[in-house]
Design goal:
Length: about 475
């Protein structure tokens, strides 16, 4: 059953937080931003952690794998929970529970304890699925691609901001407040954990599951499927081959981003001999592209959808992924900083546009099991990161590892042609898209009429005042 009263405009209502759709959009991307920040908050401090705990290259490889592996299972579960209890309660629970391992990693004293906490922190990466789910149920087909892409992109931005923000927070504790380096990185993670916990409380009070209310209320009114139907639809969605194609595709873009977030600071520190702060700033340039790059992927996905329907969205996905693979191979061959940095940015641009393009397709695969599709595809990103992580664990040179990933991504891009839709679904979505556009035009016309009436009324009052003034003279 299709949820009603979805927003047909994002940018036109961007600051209208009185609208539940817009308020939810802002809460979703901000919550994901903090989760992403915490998820990779320890990465730019690994130079210090490696020194203190005496970690080997092999152990760092296992830490990289641990940070993204548990998220695979967390995303599968979170997708089901979103369909069952709603994104509001799911996000609240994830944020408040996830804050504890983020703070708890400060208790780690050796490789084993550090690995366990790093593994547990990875669960908050499932926040992505809730973010995409929540914006999908809040926005209409004509803007859902850009709403999904922007909320996820600004959330992913946390992976870039953390690369320079965490070293700065660390410096405040060590240089400004006089704590030792051993205590400084631990206190830095506690600060992030507290922020996540407070955001979880805010999410509960400031959002709703859907435009017309929470899932419990809508089910009581018969406006959406009952809980007992959720599990059946979940397993039905798993039988759809397109879901697993997108699983692999997302592994080839978001999986690559996760891997780069984990290794970039160490890569630039070891291969280009940069210090902790400088390596963090350079590595941050990759994540900071999320300010606009993923949004571009969603906007073009919506535009391709307007021109060529759902198959247009899939074709745009192929273009992004293919260019990402080529750019990654080029980056792997850059061995001087002034060449490595611009190619890193180009590679980042196409990586994040591919992510936005993926989730401009996801909402149309199976509307009855949106959580299942979003969860499985999202888990594909982490599965890709786990596989890529093994390349950085062994004796292989890291630049060679990047080249191998580029080849794999280029090959994976052709899978986009296997994401196909029936003629009936194409026609149905064209009608929904047109209806959403008509609603947008109607809303703009009403706003213009209201402004015109206000202008006429103001002009009439002014004229009346002038007439009174003339009579008094």
């Amino acid at each position: 059953m299709e949820l009603q009263n979805k927003a047909t405009s994002l940018w036109g209502n961007f600051f209208k937080i009185t609208m539940v759709q817009i308020r939810t959009f802002h809460m979703a991307w901000f919550a994901f931003f903090l989760c992403f920040f915490a998820w990779f908050g320890i990465a730019p401090l690994m130079v210090v952690v490696r020194e203190e705990l005496g970690l080997t290259k092999d152990q760092i490889g296992w830490i990289i794998i641990a940070s993204v592996s548990v998220t695979i299972f967390a995303r599968l579960l979170i997708g089901w929970l979103c369909d069952r209890i709603g994104p509001r309660l799911t996000y609240t629970g994830l944020l408040m529970l996830g804050a504890f391992p983020v703070m708890g990693i400060g208790l780690a004293q050796d490789f084993t304890s550090f690995l366990i906490f790093r593994l547990m922190i990875g669960a908050i990466g499932a926040a992505f699925v809730i973010t995409q789910y929540h914006t999908t149920v809040m926005f209409a087909p004509n803007v859902v691609g850009q709403a999904n892409a922007t909320s996820a992109g600004w959330g992913n931005l946390g992976g870039g901001v953390t690369q320079f923000a965490m070293p700065l927070i660390f410096s405040i504790f060590v240089v400004g407040l006089g704590f030792s380096e051993s205590v400084g990185w631990r206190l830095s993670m506690i600060v992030v954990g507290v922020a996540i916990f407070l955001t979880g409380i805010a999410y509960f009070f400031w959002t709703k599951d859907a435009p017309d209310g929470n899932f419990a209320e809508l089910r009581a009114q018969g406006k959406m499927m009952q809980k007992k139907q959720v599990t059946g639809n979940y397993f039905e969605a798993l039988k759809d081959s397109r879901v697993w194609v997108l699983f692999v595709i997302y592994g080839a873009c978001f999986g690559i981003e996760l891997t780069v977030n984990n290794v970039a600071a160490l890569y630039f520190a070891d291969y280009f001999e940069l210090n902790l702060v400088t390596a963090g700033l350079v590595a941050a340039s990759f994540g900071l592209m999320n300010i606009f790059a993923r949004t571009l992927g969603g906007i073009f996905g919506d535009n391709y959808g307007a021109l060529w329907g759902l198959k247009g969205r899939a074709f745009w996905l192929f273009i992004c992924l293919f260019c990402e693979g080529l750019a990654l191979m080029l980056f792997s061959q850059m061995h001087v900083l002034f060449l490595a940095l611009p190619t890193l940015i180009i590679f980042s641009l196409f990586t994040q546009m591919a992510e936005g393009a993926t989730y401009s397709v996801v909402p149309f695969i199976n509307k009855k099991a949106l959580g299942a599709v979003a969860g499985v595809v999202g888990a594909g990103g982490n599965a890709g990161a786990v596989l890529a992580g093994f390349l950085f664990k062994g004796s292989i040179d890291w630049s060679q590892a990047f080249f191998i990933m580029g080849v794999v991504v280029t090959i994976a891009s052709f899978l986009a042609f296997f994401v196909r839709f029936s003629t009936r679904q194409e026609d149905e979505e064209r009608a929904n898209f047109a209806a959403a556009n008509i609603e947008t035009i109607r809303a703009k016309a009403e706003k213009a009429n209201a402004e015109l009436e206000e202008a006429i009324e103001a002009l009439a009052k002014k004229r009346a005042a002038e007439m009174v003034a003339e009579q008094s003279r």
